[in-house]
Each structure stands twice: as C-alpha cells, then as structure tokens.
Amino acid sequence: MTDLTPVAVYGSGGHGKVVADIVTCQGTHRVAYFVDDDASKAGTRVWGYPVLHGMDGLLRARDEIPALAAVVAIGCNESRESIAARLVAEGVPLITAIHPDACIAASARIGAGTVLMAGSIVNPSSTIGSNTILNTRSSVDHDCQIGAGVHIAPGATICGHVTIGDLATVWAGATVINNVAIGAGAILGAGAVVTHDVPPGLTVVGVPARPLRRGTP
Questions:
Q1: I want to staple 167 with a disulfide (CB 3.0 to 4.6 A). Which of 77, 86, 159, 209 is the partner?
Q2: Annotated catalytic residue within 29, 142, 151, 196
Q3: Mean pLDDT in each 10-residue stretch from start to end of the chain (217 residues)?
Q4: Is the peptide bond before 217 cis (omega within 30 degrees of 0)?
C-alpha cells in the first residue's frame, strides 16, 4: 500500500466516487483524499477518506505529502479545466485514471488528467486530450482527435476520423459519423446522430442532429 502513489480526487459527488473507484482499481495509485469546494463538506468523510476544503486544503495536504498527485472529478468541462490548470501551475501532477475494463489501442495517446471509465474504447491512432472524460461504454474509433476538457458521456459513439474541439460535450447515446468535425464548446444532445460538422459553441439535437431552437414548442 505504501508504494502506491497517493491521489487526491477533486470532487466528492457521484462522479468523484466513480473516479475514486477507478483509481483504486488501477492498482498503481491509492485514494488519499477527496477534495470539495463546498465548505460544508470539509472535515467529513466519503468511503472513509477525509474531504479537504478546496484548492487550499489540497495544497496544504501536498505540503505534508510531497508525492501527492490529483485527478479532477468534476463534470463541468470549464470547471474541470480551470482546476486542473491551477493544479499544474502549483506543481501537483495529474494522473490518468483508466479502468481495467477500458480498451485502449497501443497507438492511442491519452492526455494527463483524463478518465476512462469501464467499457470505454479508444481505437488505433486516436488522441485524447488532457482532462477529458470518456464515460461508461463510450467509444472513440480510429484516427480521432479529441480535445482537452471534453466529456463523452455514457454510450456515446465517435466514429473514425472525427475531430472534437476543446470543452465540447457529447451526451449519452449520441453518435458522430465518420469525418465530422465538432467545434470547441459544442454540445451534442443525448441520442443525437451527427452527420455534418458542428460549429463551435452550437448545441445540436435529434436524428439527424439539427441546431437547438430555444423557446420553440
């Protein structure tokens, strides 16, 4: 146990629990703390692990345990990226959390701080950026370029030669067909079938996917 790298899981909610389970299952790391920005959770315990209050609490713990690493377990892409950037600036290393049941091709590349959950797949020659979530049973096929701070939700399918920009979200069960480019910050609705490029920041829904028109019946 003492040879395992201690890890602070930043986020103590449901997503944080899943990430902590992955950290434990990897066999190379051990959960040392949860971290939460909610002051009311400071000093409590989740699964027996103490909850630290925010970045300041984590940095104080790092002063006591210099080997402490971290992973950000927050669903909001922007918040996850912001916290990860602060950790890197403070010299706290980010781990990559990969469930043993994830399938990753030898030629795939996975960025620091990224989480691959049970049943997720990354096929050959694909690159996954830093601090990205590949959620349960999501699939990224060959020759894809997935940016930083992306969330690919449970059961989503990314076909070959797809590009997804930073901070984009692909919700549960969505499918992106071959050779499509998804712009930074775009949102693909649950179950959407995306057959054409999506501009940055646009939300698309439906089959085939079309821009969401807010305020219409």
A1: 77
A2: 142
A3: 86 97 95 96 95 97 96 97 97 97 98 98 98 98 98 98 98 98 98 98 97 67
A4: no
